[in-house]
Recover the amino acids of this structure.
């Protein structure tokens, strides 16, 4: 049995409180990509499976993100599930100003021209069906059109403000 929460230490909701609470929530790590004049992509820990029929996923993206202008207009996006060996890739796509699609990134143009990353645990190309305003972000809902789950392996996880692997 766990201890009851200490309501005397409760704080008023704020961005800092939300960040502190979600540092306690382990999340899988994905990279979202899209094709524009040049490819764009970002690391996301907000990826969710929404429905199996039709096959829908969702993720959040900040409207101040350098990727947002392309994601805002993209008809298709790539969703890449990262493995525990891809911490550096996750960090590259999370860093502002990084050369995300430079020589050190294994990628190719996939279905619908979407950038598809190599060596990932699994990937999907999805058609965007909705962009829902949510504060300083947009929640993108997209329908899976193609993909490959064959990469396998253990997932990369984000917890306590850092990328990590699952323990045995």
């Amino acid at each position: 049995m766990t201890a009851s929460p200490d309501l005397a230490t409760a704080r008023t909701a704020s961005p800092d409180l939300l960040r502190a609470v979600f540092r306690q929530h382990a999340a899988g790590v994905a990279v979202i990509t899209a094709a524009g004049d040049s490819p764009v992509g970002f690391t996301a820990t907000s990826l969710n499976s929404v429905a199996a029929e039709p096959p829908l996923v969702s993720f959040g993206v900040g409207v101040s993100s350098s990727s947002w202008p392309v994601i805002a207009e993209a008809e298709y996006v790539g969703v890449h599930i990262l493995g525990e060996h891809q911490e550096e890739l996750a960090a590259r796509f999370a860093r502002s100003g990084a050369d995300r699609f430079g020589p050190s990134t294994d990628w190719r143009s996939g279905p619908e021209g979407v950038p598809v990353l190599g060596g990932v645990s699994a990937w999907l190309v999805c058609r965007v069906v909705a962009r829902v305003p949510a504060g300083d972000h947009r929640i993108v809902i997209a329908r899976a059109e193609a993909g490959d789950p064959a990469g396998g392996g253990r997932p990369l996880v984000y917890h306590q403000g850092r990328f990590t692997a699952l323990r045995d």
Summary: The chain has one domain: 15-153. Helices lie at 15-22, 68-73, 87-94. Residues 15-22 form the longest helix (8 residues).
